[in-house]
Design the sequence.
């Protein structure tokens, strides 16, 4: 008579530990009950999973982390993007914006690269800004955990020392935390850096400077300011605005006209 699969310790260890299958899946393969598999695991002294581990394995998703997706996410992390741990083995990406249009666009771009949205884009009242805002959240992925650890080494967001700014990252950062407006009779571009420490700000200044842009740290507002002479070059470098709701940040010529009008 053929030995029952669940009576073989090697089989049990391989399917439960190596393949990380659930006891329910193993029961179907071995043609027995879930409780039989559970009892045998204990009988073979095979350590069983915690509830959080079991939940992770039951709900885990797989992400092919391309360089294109990485550039988009890291650019958003420079601004309003956030990665949080959803369990000890997986993390999710979330984003808040005043424009639902932008989050819909972002969700479609992410989905095309394998990062799927979780639930709906939610609307809520932001008391700080006295306005409605929207929130996007992705599904949880193990592949996002290294990015969480890279950007939040002590549970506080920093700019990684090895981050190399490219046009995609800079464009997403500019969309989230960049500003273009006429100030003192001339167009002015700045980036909000209020949530970053000095080392992070210094690294961003170095990266922008290495691309040929004239920038400086404005201590009073804790922002990175860009020279008027560099604005057009910067906008050309990051490329056109990908979404209408933020196109005003690319209206360099209109801002020049407004600045001249203010200077008359």
Sequence:
């Amino acid at each position: 008579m053929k030995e029952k699969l669940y009576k073989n310790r090697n089989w049990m260890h391989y399917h439960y530990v190596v393949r990380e299958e659930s006891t329910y899946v193993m029961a179907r393969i071995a043609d027995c009950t879930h409780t039989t598999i559970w009892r045998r695991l204990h009988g073979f002294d095979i350590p069983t999973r915690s509830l959080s581990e079991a939940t992770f394995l039951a709900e885990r998703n797989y992400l092919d982390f391309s360089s294109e997706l990485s550039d988009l996410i890291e650019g958003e992390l420079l601004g309003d993007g956030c990665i949080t741990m959803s369990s000890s083995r997986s993390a999710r990406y979330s984003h808040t914006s005043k424009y639902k249009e932008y989050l819909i666009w972002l969700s479609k771009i992410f989905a095309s690269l394998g990062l799927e949205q979780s639930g709906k884009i939610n609307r809520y009242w932001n008391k700080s800004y006295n306005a409605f805002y929207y929130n996007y959240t992705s599904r949880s992925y193990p592949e996002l955990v290294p990015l969480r650890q890279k950007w939040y080494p002590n549970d506080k967001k920093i700019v990684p020392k090895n981050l190399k700014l490219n046009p995609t990252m800079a464009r997403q950062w500019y969309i989230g935390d960049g500003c273009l407006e006429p100030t003192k009779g001339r167009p002015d571009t700045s980036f909000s850096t209020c949530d970053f420490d000095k080392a992070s700000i210094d690294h961003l200044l170095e990266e922008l400077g290495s691309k040929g842009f004239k920038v400086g740290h404005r201590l009073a507002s804790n922002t990175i300011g860009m020279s008027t002479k560099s604005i057009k070059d910067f906008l050309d470098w990051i490329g056109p605005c990908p979404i209408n709701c933020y196109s005003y940040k690319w209206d360099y010529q209109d801002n020049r006209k407004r600045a001249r009008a203010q200077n008359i």
